[in-house]
Amino acid sequence: MVWEILAQILLNGFFTGSIYGLMALGLMLIWGVLRIINIAHGALVILGAYAAFWLFRLYGLNPFYSLPLVLLIGFLLGLSIHYSLVKPILKAPELSSLLVFFGLSLVIVNLMLIYWTANVRGLPILYPSYNVGSVTVIGDRLLASVTAIVTTALLMVFLQFTHLGRSIRATVQDDEAASLMGVNVNRIYAITMGIGVLLASLGGALIALTTPFTPYTSDIYALYAFAVVVIGGLGNPLGTLLGGIIIGEAENFTVAYYSPGMAPAVAFILLVLVLALRPRGLLSRRR
Amino acid sequence: MLTLIGFEALAIAIPFMGSSSATSLFMSVLEYMVLAYSINLLTGFTGYVDFGHVVFFGIGAYATAVMVQSFHALGVNPYVFSIAGGLMASLFALILGAPILKIRGAYFAIATLGVSEAVSVIISNTPALGGSYGMPLAAYVKYDLTSAYLSMWILLLAAMAVTLYVANSKFGYGLRAIREDEDAAEVMGVNTRLYKVAAYVLSAFFAGVAGGIFGIVTAYIDTGGYFSVSKTVEMLVAMMLGGYGTLLGPLIGGFVLSLLEYTTVVYIANLHLLVFGVILILLVLFLPEGIVGVLRRRTRLVG
Amino acid sequence: MATGIILEAKDVVKRFGGLEALRGVSVEVGREEILGLVGPNGSGKTVFFNVVTGVYKPEGGRIIFKGRDITGLPPHAIARMGIGRTFQVPKPFSAMSVRDNVMIGALFGKHGAKNPYEAAKVVDEVLELTGLAGKADLQAGLLNVPEKRRLEMARALASRPELLLLDEVLAGLTPTEIDEALGMIRSFRKELGLAVIMVEHVMRAVMNISDRIVVFNAGRKIAEGSPSEVANDQAVIEAYLGAPITGGGRE
After folding, report:
1. Per the structure, how many domains does chain C have?
2. Which residue of C has its CA nearest to B190?
3. Structure-derived torsion over alpha carbons of residues B104, B105, B110, B111, reported in degrees to the nearest 10
4. Chain B contacts of A223, Cβ < 8 Å?
5. Which domain holds residue B256?
6. Are both C121 and C66 inside the same structural domain?
7. A248-282 b/e with 16+ CB inside 10 Å = b?
8. Which residue in the set B118, B125, B284 is minimally distant from A99, CB to CB?
9. Could you tell me if B102 lies within 8 Å of chain C, comparing CB atoms?
10. Which domain holds residue C11?
11. Number of domains in chain B
């Protein structure tokens, strides 16, 4: 009995955790390549959730069928953010990008509030659940989790085996050296912003499928994504996935054994602790 | 500048003329100004961007509420307890300061956001503090807008006096050196750790007292209202708009923004935060020194 | 010239991960002495400065300043005891005026003034001495390179140090500017009675101004002596790949 409860908690933690990992991938890429902390990431995730939600509500599109459209919108949005907001401040102090993305987050969240209200939204249950012994496997969560893992794997293959992916990794290591080796760093920045926001919208679509959301949940997801990246490190999607799973498990164990209300505090406390132990940031070993 | 002085004179007189809706507008103007001075003492002088500054406002409100609940029988004016709220916020800053101020740049900003959300979640799960229902205070305090208003005025003047002192003192020079280049400041003899924590503690005090005063005047506090990220946004944008690390910036920025909120909130509930977001982006891209910076450049060109 | 020792570094070891940047170096500086510290890139000169000023904590050895062991003290405490320094890459407080930059030195150095009014006299003196008086109200970020280097020295001097560490203050200067800077450094010693350690690649200048020279190579001290002794030292010549260092080197 105890083991079955434990298995259920572990499974739930794994499912939510892998979605957290996916949701944080875009933040990790942008952070690693542009050295910019996209504090609007949570708002972009929730924007993706709304896209999947409205396409379902208005046109009856299953979120997996509407995915290509959602991803395309995400990519184009990322490119336009790059050319309008990021490019002008690439050389400016860190403070500037922080505040610009803070402003962008306010704009997105409050536009969503004004047009789509603060009502709690979510997709209905779309896929059946199974019972394995007394452990319940929720179909929607299983599919979302599989999508997260497949996406992480695809991203790793892309970074490892394509020319573009290798250029992105070189830029993560050292953008000056990459540019000396003939990488067009500005193009890489723009594409990374595109891919980053694309991944954010994918994460949003999976959240729409599995968890209720409102525009206000943006902040929570932004913080979760930071916590994931801080724990998982920069540059490696697998680390991000693991970071997500660590937080998912920590959260689910808190819910089960302590108090459901305290669950978000766990992620925040992990975040602050890791930062306090590595105060110079995640790339402090460089130089 | 003259219109501003005229406004202030009017503002002092308002509560004695008996119009309570005008008084509550001016309360919000004062709140913006005080909170902008508060965050300016840390972020404006040292460059450490605090995305969780609202935590001090919230802690001040909760500490004050607990004091009011426990000691209302003494019969003293409840607004006195807001000082305890400020001290509690400072104490929290003192404990948190040493570890968190080691974190630099954007990482510091995120860590402060994490702290403020964590404290909020913890309080809303603490039954002794009302949990997610919050703490009603109506049973212990009577509605007394004039006292609230005078308290805010005293707090604003104190915040201005402290800022004026800091700006021209050795302490202020040390803080600005930290903002420019912390490693160079340390090597030149600035005790950077001590100075950063001192600025943090000082700035927390003003936000804490303001939280206490607002808790009493609204007679009800909860984590949703007193730990909301949008309050931090208001402080940051007011400081940026007026001019970062200046004496008059928070006054001007707080004034403009609170009127902006007042006029937009009439139309659509969240419009002001949308407008603030746009202002923040435009400020960073086109006007990083804020209004005071522009005025200063103008006068230098003229003079 | 030297009337007693002001700084004594004994067997200093500094490692970064597996790399040994300093492998047990000992250096002494006398009061009012100008000591040249030379060596190829990566030989540990700047690391040595960072250990003396407390930026890095050494893994071994001791730093004695005016008879007191200062090993492991935080940088600000060491600065207040009377060690001033400049940075290889100038680090002016860019958004502050030249005067305010120097003011920081005067407020936080040895006998730091209590407030800006008290410090004003020192600031004016130093601005005059370093030839920056005319630029006092300019934003420090707007200065050109030689001026930024002079500002580095001005800030350090305003802290009223007894020992001044100069890290490549002559780099990038024209020969005329170098001569000016050397004159200035000599006058510091004469008027303020301070000792100087100069890390320098401009050999002609360092040979000319130093009372004594210490040579580092790969984290060790390989030679020490008067400029002419060091110039003819076989180990030194080998460290510089056989190039005779008088008059040549990197300029």
Report:
1. 2
2. C76
3. 20
4. 110, 113-114, 117
5. 2-302
6. no
7. bbbbbbbbbeeeebbbbbbbbbbbbbbbbebbebb
8. B284
9. no
10. 1-82+195-251
11. 1
pLDDT tens per residue across span C102-137: 999 999 988 778 888 888 999 999 998 888 999 999
How far apart are the CA of C52 and the nearest CA of chain B, in angstroms? 11
C145-158 and C98-108 are packed helices; what angle lies between their axes, rounded to 10 degrees? 30
3-state secondary structure B278-293: HHHHHHHHHCCCHHHH
pLDDT beneath 50, residues of chain B? 301-303
The ipTM assigned to this model is: 0.87
Indicate the pTM of the whole model.
0.87
- Number of domains within chain A: 1
Neighbours of chain C (3+ CB pairs under 8 A): B
pLDDT tens-digit series, residues B136-146: 998 888 888 88
B273 contacts on A by Cβ (under 8 Å): 106, 109-110
Q: Residue A220 and residue B268: Cβ atoms within 8 Å? A: no
- What secondary structure does DSSP assign to B101-136, as a single string? TTS-HHHHHHHHHHHHHHHHHHHHT-GGGTGGG-EE
| CB-based contact, B191 to chain C, within 8 Å | yes
Give the other-Cβ count within 10 Å of C19's Cβ.
9
Tell me the C-alpha distance between C195 and C35, whole Å: 8
| CATH number of the domain bearing residue A204 | 1.10.3470
Residue A241 lies in a domain: yes
Nearest CA in chain A to B124: A261
Contact between chains at C79 and B191 (C-beta distance less than 8 A): no
